[in-house]
Amino acid sequence: MARHRLTVVLSQAQGKNPAKRALEESIAAALIMEPGLDVSIIPYLYDLGPDHTGRLFLESVKGDMVVLSWLFPRAAYWLLDRIGVKGHFGESQLKPPADVDEEDEEAGEPEPPKGIGAVGVPDRQICCLDLRDFKSHEPYVEEVTRIAQECRERREAMPKTNGTAALVQLGVVLRAEEPPAPEPRFAPEQLLKAPERRWYPVIDYSRCTNCMECIDFCLFGVYGVDQLDRLFVENQDSCKKGCPACSRVCPEQAIMFPDHKTPAIAGAPGGAVSGLKIDLTRLFGGGDAIAIAAAERDRELVADGRQAVGLTVGIPKRQADKVQQPKDDLDKLTDALDALDI
Amino acid sequence: MPDDLTFLMGKFPAVLPGGLRYARNHMWCRTEEDRHRFGFTSYAVRLMQDVYFLDWSLGDGDEVHLLQEIGHIETSKAESDLFAPLAGTIVLFNRELLKDPTPINLDVYGSGWLFEMAGDAAGLMTVTDYHQFLAENWEKTQRMIKGKINED
């Protein structure tokens, strides 16, 4: 009987794309048959609010975890980190099929992370798989099985630190190879209750250097500083839906908006990911240049009945090799005068 | 009222009702009193095919400028941001579509409507102008679509 169990969480897509739903279902069906796995299905991870049962469930999981979602693994991992579901980033061996137009300039030289990293990470692994990588369930099932095996070996190699497992077994009639019954408070209908759609940034602390440019830039009070003086997304729901401006400003590309259509903003592993679908944005009226962060922010300011600030507030000056100096009030004043265009 | 026109996209006839006006971003407009109701033209729907997911980044009553980004759509063939066809106020979004976007495909000029706006709609095209606009851009559009598909 497998002593160590791996929790597998399948986070559904938003909307009703039948192909996505079918993939989710076939993965779940295949994994439920595997011994040693506890499989749960929750709605779209990014949308789960603090009170959603799916989130309470995630918080209750203490051991190793595999999370399959329609999000880039980096986004899913740091999203979980923000809600206190922490662990070591489990490396997946699942690699998306190579793109035909693979012109990855950055490939080859992985830089060591220069971010401030996560804190309070317990000794367990969280491995996030992207459901957009493959169209069939087999690669996922294979990878989850492999991860389960790896986790089991890792646990067995570790010194046993507690004996609670044995105590729990006392007096219990020997169970067959059945998984333990799911906790009643996580009834499937509650777990799957459709959440409201949300929009907020997710910080990748392996990249974030705590430079605070995002705090300076965002004028909606989304960002704050925790007790350890680390930047964090304090007021997620103060964020302006659709606005990814701060992620364009971040010098380390540490800010992700997992639902943004641009892969680099949504947490893609670095290089561009080729879209499988036609982008009709130009045809439907989109401009050809990337919207400037300040314009996006102005739009939100005006929508809030506030003054547009253009490039006068919180815009980092990032000329090549220029030593960064924090702006003082005089700088801001002169910038504001410049922007008046008189 | 002008006659309905049909624009041939390859073999597919995109029907363009004569009683509507059209925006360059491939939305139709039906004006009743001071409200302009917008939806995707059958030309746009044919390009996108089955709509899977629709999302608005604004709410009812929000003011927009012309071609401001207002939402996003995912379909079986395409993805796109969506943009305001007019400057003005978005009075009302069709909430039904958030639950189930299939009316966009099934009832293009009816229950598949997207939102209602208040604003100056003088810049919209007549059916004849829109038909001509489609004809002039058809070559380019095909090239764009093929280019994208070849990239995969």
**SSE series of chain B:** EEEEEHEEEEEHHEH
User: How many DSSP H or I helices of chain A?
Assistant: 11
Helix content of chain B: 25-40%
Global structural class of chain A: alpha/beta
Helix content of chain A: 25-40%
The largest sheet of chain B has its strands arranged as 3-4-5-11-10-7
Write down the overall mean pLDDT of chain A: 79
Radius of gyration of chain A: 23 Å
Low-confidence stretches of chain A: 99-108, 163-177, 271-275, 318-325
Shape descriptor of chain B reads globular
Main pleated-sheet profile of chain B: 6 strands, antiparallel
The count of DSSP E runs of length 2 or more, i.e. the number of strands of chain A, is 10
What do you see in this structure?
The complex is a heterodimer of chains A (342) and B (152). In chain A, strand 7 and strand 8 (231-233) form a beta hairpin. Helices cover 29% and strands 11% of the residues of chain A. Chain A has 342 residues and is of the alpha/beta class. Chain A has eleven helices and ten strands. The radius of gyration of chain A is 23 Å and the shape is globular. Chain B is α+β, with helices and mostly antiparallel strands and 152 residues long. Chain B has four helices and eleven strands. In chain B, the strands form three sheets. Chain B has a six-stranded antiparallel β-sheet. A three-stranded antiparallel β-sheet of chain B has the order 6-8-9, covered by helices on one side. The longest helix of chain B has 25 residues, at 127-151. Chain B is globular and about 40 Å long. Classes of the chains: A alpha/beta (342), B alpha+beta (152).
Record keyword descriptors for this entry:
heterodimer; A: 342 residues; alpha/beta; five-stranded parallel sheet; two-stranded antiparallel sheet; 11 helices; 10 strands; B: 152 residues; three-stranded antiparallel sheet; 38% strand
